[in-house]
Amino acid sequence: MKGVKFRNHRVVGDIIELAQRYCAEGADELVFYDITASPDGRSVDRAWVDRVAAIIDIPFCVAGGIRSVADAEDVLNKGADKISINSPALETPQLINQLARRFGSQCVVLGVDSRQQNGGYHVYQYTGDPDKTAAADRHTVDWIVEAQDRGVGEIVLNCMNQDGVRQGYDNQQLRLMRDNSHVPLIASGGAGVMSDFVETFKVANVDGALAASVFHSAEINIADLKRYLIDNSVDIRPAG
Amino acid sequence: MSSGSIAIIDSGGANIASLLYAFKRLHTDATLTTDAGLIKAADRVILPGVGAARDAMRRLRDSRLIDVIRELTQPVLGICLGMHLLADASEEEDVECLGIIPGTARKLPGDTSCPVPNMGWCPVSQTADHELLSDIGAGAYFYFLHSYALPVSECTIAQAHHAEPFSAVVGHRNFVAAQFHPERSAAAGSKLLQNFVGIHS
User: Fold this and answer.
1) CA-to-CA distance for B183 and B21, rounded, in angstroms?
2) Which of A144, A137, A74 is nearest to A109 (CA)?
3) How does pLDDT run across A81-103, given as a tens digit for each residue?
């Protein structure tokens, strides 16, 4: 169980309150996204990173607009455990090498937005803004293999065909990427009900599952979900 | 809890903040430093580490801390890379380390069914009695984030499993070390840090 994806447009008080709630419920990791950072050419507003680091005692990752070693250093120094890069890595793949060399692969997460098209899987970028979202002219398998060669330590695969529709994770795609990943692979996009989580662990053999809306809306309580996963023989840390 | 001083050795890596915050949550003062005097005088010393072994050893050497650390007699806790730094050596870029805890950090074996780095929560089983692990339940989960680990040895006091078993916690004289990150391991990690602060020296 990976935890929770935070979207932007939340005031800091909300972020802190939600982070505390998810920690108490037993989330294993939190991922904070500022999905509008890259399309707008700006970076994450990082004042809240310190505050999150001070109150939570589980790992967290910051994603959005990290375009340089200096950006990453700032976020990590404020107490984040990992940084996740997506569009900037597509623009400048060398950035992955630089980040891995400076901070170690274990700090560097690659976010990939992938969509099935003409029978293959293709990478998209600037997905935070519908007007700017564009195909990145790369096959997803090629990109994740290259990114691992360059030093990413984890891959979060957001399956765009499934995102927001809550019909389950795209386990066929995830399985393909699993077979091409020797680093941890995290499923993202599509969680609707608790059995979706069990299925992605069993069918796609992912290392974690990420979800946002079902947790934010409290439709699924993380502690309940973890009990359900354990009852279904998924090997995870029990809640509380 | 002891009100003594805790020195966290600044080995230059990022992400020391989470360790400082963890002690703040325990209402215990901890100071990040490279000052040999402060480190020697502290009641407890922590050697953290994120990044690569070679860089970290170079920074300890530049700060003239190699012998200072070797000669410490108070309880010392190494965390993650700090555990490898306390050992004889690391396979990561073939680096000679401090040589305090016997053993060499080896690259974790892995493939697509057992990914490396090992990133996530793993159950830890205690294999020897130690104050550091008091009141931490059998099989408690801790958060790991690493590609290298010390093999199981006579210094192992708790182990975890990836493709094969490895040392999750080791103890040797006044030195203890954890492969996982107690500062990010929820209640179990917080208990371990509390135990470290209260350890009999």
Assistant:
1) 8
2) A144
3) 999 999 999 999 999 999 998 88
- Chain B residues closer than 8 Å to A50 by CB: 17
Phi first, then psi, for residue A199 (nearest 5°) are -65, -40
In chain B, what are the domain boundaries? 6-198
**Residue A226 resides in a domain:** yes
Residue B183 annotated as catalytic: yes
Instruction: Say if the ipTM goes beyond 0.95.
Output: no
Q: How many CA atoms lie within 13 A of A101 on its CB side?
A: 8
Radius of gyration of chain B (CA): 15
Chain A residues lying within 8 Å of B111, measured CB to CB: 182
At the top level of CATH, which class does the domain B6-198 belong to? alpha beta
Helices (H) and strands (E) in chain B, counts: 6, 14
Would you say residue A122 lies in a domain?
A: yes
Helices (H), A104-238: 140-150, 171-178, 194-203, 213-216, 222-231
Domain that holds residue A71: 3-231
B117 vs A77, A81, A183: nearest CB: A183
The model's confidence at residue A216, banded by pLDDT at 50, 70 and 90, is confident
Q: Distance between CA atoms of A114 and A128, rounded to whole angstroms?
A: 13
The residue type at A66: I
Q: Look at residue A96 and tell me if it is in a domain.
A: yes
